[in-house]
Amino acid sequence: MRSTSTWSTSGVDHILVHDNRPDEAVLDDVYRKYRGSHPFLPVTHFIDHSTMGAEALVALGLGHRVMDWISHHDVRPYEAPSAGISISSAWTDALGRKECHGDWLRHFESELNVSSFEDVLAVWVGRFAHEAGAFLFHGLIRTAHAARALQHEDTQARRGELARGLALWAIGIKSAPSAHVVNIDPMGEVMHCALAGAATFVRKSTVPNLHLVTGPMAYTMIAHHLNPRVHGIAAAAFRQTHAKAIAALQSAKPEVLSEPMPSVDQAHLEALAEKTDAHPAKLTEAALRAYQASGDDLFLKAAGKVQNYGFWRELVG
Fold first, then answer.
1. Which terminus of the chain is more solvent-facing, meaning fewer CB atoms within 10 Å of its CB: N or C?
2. Residue 262 phi/psi, 5° resolution?
3. In whole angstroms, what separates CA 106 from the centre of its chain?
4. In which region does residue 171 sit, left (phi positive, over 0), alpha (psi from -120 to 50) or beta (all else)?
């Protein structure tokens, strides 16, 4: 299902800021602000999206709105628990254990003080990719947003954010690394999973379904830092998390194709910064990137689902 709209992939080039992002330095302030903040929200215990949402806004050229946006997101003091495990020698024993969060944090902070962030990603994403869906993909997503920020500017604040992303991912992983891989065009499979996720989200626009798009698209943000063999592991993981979406893709097409084609203009983008929730900005940025890479209208239609503020307010309750 290729693009038949009046949009071209170049139509989103002026929206997605790949180089020389305006107000880039604001992210260092954000990462310093939330350095010691609790990664889980109260009551719902869902993941705090403050840092991820801020980076997505910068990628959409909305860095000038970030400080106002994060003013609606509390900093909640947090001391990460530790079990005293040596991650260097016994990292598999600390997987999936929240009581080891502090051990993971200290380990990644130490590694990132002496190694390039690319080298750290290459090692640990290879070890974690078999559970790309941990915490509804948020370990991966937070890691990917931090890594992209580091690609634009390598600072201590950004390395700290990458440490927090990787540590979050680590405590969500429930199993040892798997041998399951996809050997044939694994990155194509990752994109196919994102496409199936977009169709699912257009049909039923829920927060969990939204992450069927943002999860695999987060992986594409860091894939170029990784050994190609890791792509096969990640693709196998996404096949599992997206199994229902993939199975329903063909039957979903008629309904999805009937959805109106949205226009994504500057007014729409500015409205994203008015929403205190990070999901609209994250979905829009990921879907536009996917459309730019594939030319498939399904991704634009997914982005269109979060344009209406009243609709989104009902969606998140």
1. C
2. -80, 160
3. 23
4. alpha
Distance, in Å, from the CA atom of 84 to the CA atom of 248, rounded to the nearest integer, reads 46
- Per-residue pLDDT, 227: 95
pTM over 0.85: yes
pLDDT score for 240? 96
Domain extents in the chain: 180-316
Return the exposure string of 83-104: e unless at least 16 CB atoms fall within 10 Å of the residue's CB, then b: eebebeeebeebbbbeebbbbb
Q: Can you give the pLDDT at residue 6?
A: 46
Give the sign of the dihedral formed by CA 302, CA 55, CA 222, CA 219: negative
What is the residue whose two structure tokens read 């969060």?
Answer: 101
- Rounded Cα distance between 11 and 229, Å, is 33
Q: Which two tokens stand for residue 237?
A: 């993981």
What amino acid is encoded at 89 in this protein?
A: S
User: Which of 271, 264, 108, 287 has its CA nearest to residue 211?
Assistant: 287
Q: Determine the residue type at 88.
A: S
Cα–Cα distance, 193 to 98 (Å, whole number): 29
- Tell me the mean pLDDT per 10 residues along the chain, length 317: 46 70 97 97 91 97 95 95 97 97 98 98 97 98 98 98 98 89 92 97 94 98 96 97 97 85 80 90 96 93 74 44
CA distances from 212 to 28, 29, 43, 271 (A): 28, 30, 24, 23
